[in-house]
């Protein structure tokens, strides 16, 4: 288990691809490119390769939820000057949007909090920082948002370091809870920073991978017996399983979209256990998506020039075996989609299913099963139309043509 987890931090040279065989940069490559375009065009409704970004979109709200909702009684505990500035700031975020004024008031709220002697590590003050980052992101100032979050991360890291050095004035129980809260904040902020780096304003996936890899490294470090137990709720950050799964799959997506398919597949596989546990054994749309991602990422890897399958150069036999294995993952995604309870179904299920069916059709075609492949592509087209993915419709039509139809 641990060997796989630590792969996240290995240098690229060690990360030989397990799958892959050369073929023309054909349908699959185009499909992948179209997925990318679709992701760009439909950032919210097209998370087919992106379970985690769905979660990270609301990550800041989650931080705020943690601070404002769960500790609601303390919300009123802001000194009047801080509360006034906060109110003004939020008014210029939501009511009469004005980035300059919003930033001014929120920064002022932080300053007032400092001057009135509020504890900078308290949920309330960290909550103001989160609001500030959220506001900057909302107005497209990703760089500023990252700076605010990085500042928060540094602050929390220093606090953790102090605690670990024994510098603390609180009782052990309070100290433990403070440390846990600091760790959670660091992890959530890093996940958010990673998604900001990945996003349209920064477009730096290298940095995004670094930041998220650090977060996962920290989580591993703070998890009890990761070698034998994998990721669990038994982590000092008290990070819940669904967030762990979300963070892992965000990492998988980053690898998948930057051509590190082998890593992506391994991290997606690590995602399954915490994801299933988080759902108490219920099948979920996110599981459909992760399974579908495993299949599509393996399929992409298998077709990369010069790649190997389980350490061996690709040949007819091991390619056939690999296709069979990938088909099994795609089928698992499709079966899972069928048993998700109707009330739990959402767009992610539909997209995960479409993606799994496309992968399956492609594999059937590669396997020379042209009749089944044609059938498969034909049955996907109406669903693609319904979703408005015209470019993918063209891919499916090309698939039918290649299958001799
Ligand atoms: C992305 O971040 C890395 C640091 O991790 C940096 O070296 C690189 O220059 C950045 N790339 C761009 C395009 O800003
Ligand atoms: C799983 O399904 C059961 C029965 O429908 C439901 O009561 C429970 O809340 C579900 N658990 C989760 C985590 O969704």
Automatic annotation (TrEMBL):
UniProt protein name: Uncharacterized protein
Source organism of this protein record: Lithohypha guttulata
GO BP of this protein: protein quality control for misfolded or incompletely synthesized proteins
UniProt entry keywords in alphabetical sequence: Membrane, Transmembrane, Transmembrane helix
GO cellular component, one term: i-AAA complex
MF-aspect GO terms: misfolded protein binding
Protein's UniProt keywords contain Membrane: yes
Taxonomic classification: Eukaryota, Fungi, Dikarya, Ascomycota, Pezizomycotina
Bilayer-crossing regions: 44-65
């Amino acid at each position: 288990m641990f060997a796989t987890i630590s792969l996240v931090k290995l240098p690229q040279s060690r990360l030989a691809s397990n799958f892959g065989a050369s073929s023309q940069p054909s349908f699959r490559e185009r499909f992948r490119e179209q997925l990318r375009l679709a992701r760009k065009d439909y950032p919210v409704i097209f998370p087919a390769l992106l379970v985690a970004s769905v979660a990270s979109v609301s990550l800041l709200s989650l931080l705020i939820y943690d601070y404002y909702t769960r500790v609601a009684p303390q919300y009123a505990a802001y000194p009047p000057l801080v509360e006034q500035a906060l109110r003004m700031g939020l008014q210029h975020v939501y009511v009469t949007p004005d980035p300059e004024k919003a930033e001014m008031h929120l920064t002022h709220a932080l300053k007032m909090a400092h001057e009135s002697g509020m504890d900078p590590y308290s949920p309330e003050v960290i909550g103001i920082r989160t609001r500030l980052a959220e506001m900057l992101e909302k107005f497209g100032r990703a760089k500023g948002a990252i700076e605010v979050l990085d500042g928060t991360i540094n602050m929390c890291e220093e606090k953790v370091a102090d605690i670990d050095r024994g510098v603390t004035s609180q009782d052990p129980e309070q100290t433990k809870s403070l440390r846990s809260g600091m760790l959670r904040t660091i992890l959530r902020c890093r996940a958010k920073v990673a998604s900001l780096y990945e996003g349209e304003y920064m477009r730096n996936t290298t940095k995004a991978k670094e930041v998220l890899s650090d977060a996962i490294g920290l989580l591993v470090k703070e998890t009890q017996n990761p070698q034998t137990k994998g990721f669990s709720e038994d982590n000092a950050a008290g990070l819940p399983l669904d967030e762990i799964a979300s963070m892992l799959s965000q990492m998988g997506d980053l690898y998948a979209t930057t051509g590190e398919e082998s890593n992506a597949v391994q991290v997606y596989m690590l995602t399954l256990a915490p994801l299933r546990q988080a759902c108490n054994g219920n099948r979920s749309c996110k599981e459909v998506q992760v399974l579908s991602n495993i299949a599509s990422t393996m399929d992409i890897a298998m077709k990369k020039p010069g790649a190997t399958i389980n350490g061996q150069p690709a040949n007819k036999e091991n390619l056939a075996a690999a296709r069979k294995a990938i088909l099994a993952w795609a089928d698992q995604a499709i079966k899972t989609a069928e048993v998700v309870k109707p009330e739990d179904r959402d767009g992610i299920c539909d997209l995960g299913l479409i993606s799994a069916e496309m992968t399956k059709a492609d594999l059937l075609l590669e396997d020379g099963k042209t009749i089944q492949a044609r059938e498969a592509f034909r049955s996907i087209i109406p669903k693609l139309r319904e979703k408005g993915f015209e470019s993918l419709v063209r891919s499916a039509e090309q698939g039918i043509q290649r299958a001799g139809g």
